Every structure is written in structure tokens, then in C-alpha cells.
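>> received
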Amino acid sequence: MPHQYIRKILEAKVYDVAVETPIHPAPFLSKRLNNTVLLKREDLQPVFSFKIRGAYNKIIQLTEEERAKGVVCASAGNHAQGVALASQHLGIHAVIVMPGTTPEIKYKACQARGAEVVLHGDTFDQALTYAQSLVEEKGLTFIHPYDDPYTIAGQGTIGMEILRQHTGQLDVVFIPVGGGGLAAGVATYIKYLRPDIKVVGVEYEESACLKAALEADERVVLPHVGLFADGVAVAQIGEETFKLCREYLDEVITVSADEICAAIKDIFDDTRSVCEPAGAVGLAGLKKYSTENQLSGQSLMAIASGANINFDRLRYVSERAELGEKREAIIAVTIPEEPGSFKQFCETLGKRNITEFNYRYHDARSARIFVGVQVHPDQMPVENLVGELREHGYPVANFTDNEMAKLHVRHMVGGHSKEVENEVVYRFEFPERPGALLNFLMKLGKRWNISMFHYRNHGAAYGRVAVGLDVPPEDRQHIAGFLEELGYHYCEETTNLAYQAFLG
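>> returned
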């Protein structure tokens, strides 16, 4: 099998439309990690993503008859733009099916390249089903985003460039994994020519379909896929890509949304370029792997795979980057309700900067404050901060890893009405599109009174909501069925400490 793919990679005709992207050093991050950090800049492709390689290499293999009928694909963005540009270059009609939640920047880029864009459904799976129906209905050729030998070979040309451009020491290469096309192609090539180089696949922890497949020793379908890193939001690893990734990846690790946001900031600091979340997954993995394995003096490379980010999402990224870098702590502290207590608390913090301060009257004896504090993972870690405050007699709760606190409570610090006696609290994710919030409220508000609500648009393909419902004890047994009918991913937060401390 490797010989077959090596030949396909060497013969791939990607450079009619793609460019050979440079490898750039990341000096600031290299110094911080005490390793040489390198970035393979696939965000510099004409469509700002590596996907153009695989799409073009597949489409150029089509027969004249297939070209005449046209092509179709389903994609949330990057593959779609690759198919659009490849089809435009070859004079082929392309139909791009995208979920209705796709950011405007992505579908307009496809239209600008002459593709016919169809917005269908809320999820990639719904778009995929519709795209496949067009194959039967109109005779179009389906261009798979990752699970095709020619697509895999096209992405594999990145591995060829890496070994040709960087001939010196190279210890580990980190590759983002969604459906697995990029990882399969690059890992197969690198391990064939340089088996001494370790190749690590990196997945977003809420869409880790390869990790799940490796643990089960077979392809599985994830019950829920987080959409933050939409470019790698895949529920099941590809069939062909799974075979190759299982054989040629040395390891697979996962990273959190906060770690991805921190990596986006690191790429910006070193290159002045802004990657999309999926594009920074590889570097997030590099940082995590380097720290956990205490690497020093090694040469580490991450593929910066794409830069198609909706501008509105930068607000969320900037908020979470410091948390991902472990440079901000989110804590709840109880202080005496008396004159001078704020001043004394700030003096206890010493030279640490306060990034956020929310106050809530608790009772005549005490007050609760929700505080963001600047820390440092080495010199001033959050654990030291919590320990120092407790030594000074302050009751402290660390909410740095509490999603309810970071997403909602920090924007809502208030109180609980005495008239609401039976509040239960849930966090939801729902597809973000015009009218989505109203539709959500219409479905939610038919049965029980809404006692608390927080929603904040992050410019993403999904909305995140915190909801309190006033549900009498005799109705509790009906909640689960009602929430399942809503059809949105949810989790209960009634016992969440952040909610209990400031909103409960």
C-alpha cells in the first residue's frame, strides 16, 4: 500500500493551482518552549487552506464525460473552496452543498469562483445526504473531502515538500485530523522516506473520531461533534484514511478549545497571520506534547492548515486565548461584607493583575466576587494563587476549567429570585442561522417558565445558551423527553458550583 501512495503523491498534479508553501520558524514560541518550532504555512494557499491540493488532484483525474456532467461536494468551507477553484480552473460546473449555518465569508468565496452554492440543512451530515442525492438525480461526480486515494495523495504532497524544504534535524511533525485525509497522506509519505521522524495526529477533543476508532479498533460514529473547530468537525474517520492513519501515525492526541485559541494567538505573535481554529490544531498539539513530554532542544513542526476564520469569532478566540495559555485564572472568592475588604483582597493578590471583577452581595456578613486574575504557568501558576488566598483565610473555588463559568456566569453575575423555587439549569448548543434563537425560544417556552437565559453570539456556526427553567418536582420526570424532542445538544448544570455560587 505505501508504494501505491508514494507514486500517487509524486505524480499528483496539484501545482496547477496550489503553491509550494514555505516553512516559517516561530521564534517567540521556540524560545518559550526551548525547542525549535516550525510552521508549514498551508494558510498561504490561494484558498487559504491545504484543501485545494486534494480537491484538484481528484478532479483532474475525471474523464471527459464526468467533467461534462459536473461535480458536487458537501463542505462547511475549505474543501468547498478547493473544489470551486479547481473546477473554475478546469472549466467544470461545480455544485457546492453547505449547511445553512456556514459563515458568509465561506460560501461567498465559493460563489466568487463560479460555483453554484446550495445551503441545505443545519449540519454537515444533512448537507452530505443532499449532495449525494444530486449524484443520483443529475449524474454529478461526488468529490469526497478526504476519503479518496487521489484526495489523500494530493494532501500528501505537503509531506513531500516538508522533507524537500527541511533537510536538517526534524524530530516530530504534528498534523491536524478531521476526516484524516491530510494526516493519512502526509504520514504515509514521511514515514516511508524518514521513519525516524515521529508523526503525531492532533484532534479537537470534541471531534476526536480517530482516537475513538483506535480505541475501539474499528471506525465508530461519535454521538456528538463539537463545532468550534469546524474544519475538523467530523463524526467518523474515513475508511481509507483510518487504514493509513492507524499504520503510519505514531500517536494521536487531543486538544481543548482553549488550547486551540492560545495556539491561534501564538501563530499571530510569530507570523502576524490569523489561523482558523482547525488551522491551529496542529500547533496546539505541538505545545501540549512538548510540555507534557518535557521536550528540549528538539525540532518540532506543525502544519498550519487554514485561515478561513469568520472575523466575528476573533472576539471569542481572544477571550479564551489567555485561559488556554494558562495565563488567566477564573476564581470565585468569598470576602467579608465590610469596609476595606476589597482593598485588603487586592493587596493579598500582590502584583498580579486583575483582568475581571464581578461582585455579588451574598448576605450581611459576606460578599462573593467572580475574579479573573493574570497568572503565569511557571512563575505564578493558578494553584499557587489559590493556595495563597486560602492561607489568608479566603474561601476560594477555581473555575478556570469550568465551561459554565467561562461561557455564561462571568457575563451574568446576579442573584436568584425567591419566587423561583424549582430552577433547573441547562447548557445548549443550537445551529446558528437567521431566526435560530427565536425558534429555540419558541420550542423551549411552551411548557415551563424560563427563569434565566443567557445567549451570546460568537460568530460561529452554533449558538451557546444557558437556560434556567422553573420546573415543579412532579414534572421533573418529563424533562429528559422534552429536551430530546428539542433536538439540541445539552448538558445539565444545576449542580455546577459557578451557578450555585453566583446565580443559584
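>> Residues 2-49+149-323 form a domain with the Rossmann fold fold (CATH 3.40.50.1100).
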